[in-house]
Amino acid sequence: MPSPAATPGPGANFLGALDAHIGKATDALLSYQQTDGHWVFELEADATIPSEYVLLVHHLGEEPNLELERKIGVYLRRIQGDHGGWPLFKDGEFNISASVKAYFALKMIGDDPEAPHMRRAREAILAHGGASHVNVFTRIQLALYGQVSWRAVPVMPAEIMLLPRWSPFTIWKVSYWARTTIVPLLVLQTLKPKARNPRGVTIDELFREPPATVGPPEKAPHQSWSWFLLFRGIDAVLRVIDPLAPKGLRQRAIDAAVAFVRERLNGEDGIGAIYPPMANTVMMYDVLGFPADYPERAVARRAIEKLLIVKDDEAYCQPCVSPVWDTALSCHALMETGDDRAVERARAGLDWLKPRQVLDLKGDWAEIKPEVRPGGWAFQYANAHYPDLDDTAVVVMAMDRVRQKGGEHGFDEAIDRGREWILGLQSKNGGWAAFDADNTYSYLNNIPFSDHGALLDPPTEDVAARCISMLAQLGETPQSSRPMAHALDYLRRLQLPDGSWYGRWGMNYIYGTWSVLCALNAAGLGRDDPAVRKAADWLIRIQNVDGGWGEDGSSYKLEYQGYEPAPSTASQTAWALLSLMAAGEVDHPSVARGVAWLAQTQNAEGLWDEERYTATGFPRVFYLRYHGYRKFFPLWAMARYRNLKRANDRRVAFGM
């Protein structure tokens, strides 16, 4: 329950004690820095990716690593929910698709279907309608294993690769993650290979009807009937004409898909640097007859192995890695401490980041903005075709902080090119998206293939706010910068009636509100601005009784009616505190109580325990637990609080 604003804060000696907490957290964060200067922390999703990894090995007929399989089994059993299935985030509701994949993977590993945990999972799956109710991507997995017919999967012929740019649906009208996933998948759906499955594992027991009778997917909740029925009709026509496609045309389409993949293979960092396109690429090469040692297939396969997290007792597969994001945010937190040693180590992190700026390759974003020069950073170690706006803005702001502090100019060119690239990718509505500009073809989320509703990369409040923060920190104002004024109008339009903003890439309204309040402060809007005031009041109102803040993935539901309480987490508490300080509320009792909660919950290592998920891959579909968030965000918030309380000027001076 929210707490009264008048609840007493910590005592007068708290600031002195806070120095020790900050010092301990600083030491802990520094201990994770790699020898070359960067940070990278685990990035955990749900049961889906590790389950898919197990199924990929058996699809290819590889000799499995039995010890690795055993450890993945330990992980999957540990995260099974009390409801018997698997959720998309800790303590989340049952999810049919994640549960079917996890059950399939555990059975493949060798778990007895009559073992208690398998029985509970099977009963839960059947109680929710059975495996015929899984999403499209899971249906494809089941079709590849022959568990359902290809009739259960929307038709996606390879000839999509040959559609002109003006066509209502082309690979250039969807997001980068959808594009890189779909292209090799087009080959799989056209050639329809069957998994080798040397252990002969099946999951017929998860269906309430004969699996062979499962038909096309039903309309998803986010889809409109008129659009869905239109696309369902197109799907029916494609089923009839697909077998009649001329062989020459089909081969040309497959060749185009292979060429697309080949250009973007990205070495051992993998196509798109995310798991789904990597796995689809390996299966694509396999069905096309390329042997396991064929160089392109082999490098794609090695990229997947680099996503594994293998511990003493368990293992899982990450969806991707996050070194640029982790490093940039760690640098911000360390610079906030003001500690000379920490600032020097942050500078080493920025030195590691500098050569990773993409300056010589126009990625897929240039299909819409061909006149813009490259200048962004990717999220991963290497992903030159797909730099993102969020990472770029955060890196630029960190470099600018070092420049302001030390007067050095070694980052000038990197900052200028990053700023130029971000300005060039502003969308027409004033906002910014993560990877592309104007990727707003919302009708495409109604195609049968898009039952997940995550086909597009439209502008979002959190990314737009980060870009505004960067521009403002670099000296632009709404009066001097038309792009900034346009973007501020965009944010004002999207503020919700309760005062919050939506968070696309972090959970959820706390994250979005943090992002926007930082931007509004950097742009010069004071605490008396109505939008700022309303947002600050909302944050104060939703504070938990213990002094922290929390929110979970249920906030993304389509029928969302307003904030619903969730247990406090360190990262979300830090976002709320940074928000309120950006809104000019450093002296509010809620801020003191939040900082006190962080101090009280700091563990012996100097960090915070946080098992709950606080980040988002795709709303309602895929959530993330950044293991680094509990390491740098609370430190950042505590250091800022101490600094502002001891300063003559209580205004936050930076974009984040």
UniProtKB/TrEMBL annotation:
<dbReference type="Pfam" id="PF13243">
    <property type="entry name" value="SQHop_cyclase_C"/>
</dbReference>
<keyword id="KW-0677">Repeat</keyword>
<comment type="pathway">
    <text>Secondary metabolite biosynthesis; hopanoid biosynthesis.</text>
</comment>
<dbReference type="InterPro" id="IPR002365">
    <property type="entry name" value="Terpene_synthase_CS"/>
</dbReference>
<dbReference type="InterPro" id="IPR008930">
    <property type="entry name" value="Terpenoid_cyclase/PrenylTrfase"/>
</dbReference>
<dbReference type="GO" id="GO:0005811">
    <property type="term" value="C:lipid droplet"/>
</dbReference>
<keyword id="KW-0413">Isomerase</keyword>
<dbReference type="InterPro" id="IPR018333">
    <property type="entry name" value="Squalene_cyclase"/>
</dbReference>
<dbReference type="InterPro" id="IPR032696">
    <property type="entry name" value="SQ_cyclase_C"/>
</dbReference>
<feature type="domain" description="Squalene cyclase N-terminal">
    <location>
        <begin position="22"/>
        <end position="312"/>
    </location>
</feature>
<dbReference type="InterPro" id="IPR032697">
    <property type="entry name" value="SQ_cyclase_N"/>
</dbReference>
<comment type="similarity">
    <text>Belongs to the terpene cyclase/mutase family.</text>
</comment>
<feature type="domain" description="Squalene cyclase C-terminal">
    <location>
        <begin position="321"/>
        <end position="643"/>
    </location>
</feature>
<dbReference type="GO" id="GO:0016104">
    <property type="term" value="P:triterpenoid biosynthetic process"/>
</dbReference>
<dbReference type="Pfam" id="PF13249">
    <property type="entry name" value="SQHop_cyclase_N"/>
</dbReference>
<dbReference type="InterPro" id="IPR006400">
    <property type="entry name" value="Hopene-cyclase"/>
</dbReference>
<dbReference type="GO" id="GO:0016866">
    <property type="term" value="F:intramolecular transferase activity"/>
</dbReference>
<protein>
    <submittedName>
        <fullName>Squalene--hopene cyclase</fullName>
    </submittedName>
</protein>
